[in-house]
Amino acid sequence: MKLLIARPMTEAVEARARAEFDTEIREMTTPMTQEEMVQALTEFDVVVPTLGDQFSAQILAQVPQPRCKLLANFGVGYNHIDVAAARAASIAVTNTPGAVTDATADIAMTLLLTTARRAGEGERLVRSGLWEGWHPTQMLGHHVTGKKVGIVGMGRIGQAIALRCHFGFGMSVAYQSRNPKQLDFPAEYVPDLSVLASATDFVVIAVPGGAETRHLINAEVLEAMKPTGILVNIARGEVVDEVALISALQAGQIAGAGLDVYEFEPKVPHALREMENVTLLPHLGTATEEVRTDMGHMALDNVAAFVAGRPLPNPV
Ligand code: NAP
Is the model's pTM score more than 0.90? Predict the structure, then answer.
């Protein structure tokens, strides 16, 4: 059983992989090239790919009889894998749900607070040496406690964000997702995105990426937001129409944005980088040692189940 892991992992995960399987770990931190993906499908029984490794229908079609039988994705989001095409080629796909939830919700709150309270701008001011001292109207931001948050995608991460907003910041919670949820905290289901946008102070995106959610947040939804509204995206860049977002920010239609992900990642438009009211993080959602180790173990648990002929714990 030959295993390919597509990126360097934490020490604990690499040690387990090497101890349990005949493992090759790619040294590069950049996404796999097309040639590497074709080679991986041809020469390995299991591949652990991750964000940016575009296992598209076209790549899968290049290897009509793949040796690879499992893509054990590292990450909960798998919009970079054409799951239907993989299935048609008898390749199973698994992911790492749950392990990522709290860390990603924490980053959503980091972005919400940083943007509302102008913390990025303030930090840059202090570092610049130009800060002239406190005064009653210096750098006034948006109050967070008690405001209303609209969560788009009330799944695991959406609910973890809602809990933080409700219990941590006394916020009222409204949400949109495909189906209403049974929740043990108060939250209003608002199926229409524009209605949700117009009724809330913060719109936080937590849906999966992929064709179904591409540009879910478009010019119309942005226009519906309050001029004091702030958009936070920790989901996938493509969920937000980035050109429309830039226009809305430039026109002052919304007050700010906090982004962990970008439509053409890792390219971040100059227009966004120029704006002080935008917080920009380099896709830090799950970036802690513990969480990346948990994610790696979860991916390897799926590999181990595959090798033992047991049901896969996290099929997608
Ligand atoms: P999840 O539990 O599957 O939740 C996804 C939610 O999105 C569900 O509530 C689902 O609604 C809703 N949804 C799906 N398609 C929708 C649509 N077309 N319109 C409206 N709502 C829709 O997933 P999760 O674990 O919370 O993760 C969510 C996403 O976050 C991942 O797929 C990943 O891309 C992203 N993520 C980002 C980072 C980061 O580093 N920034 C880290 C982890 C995850 P129903 O339940 O009603 O079907």
Answer: yes
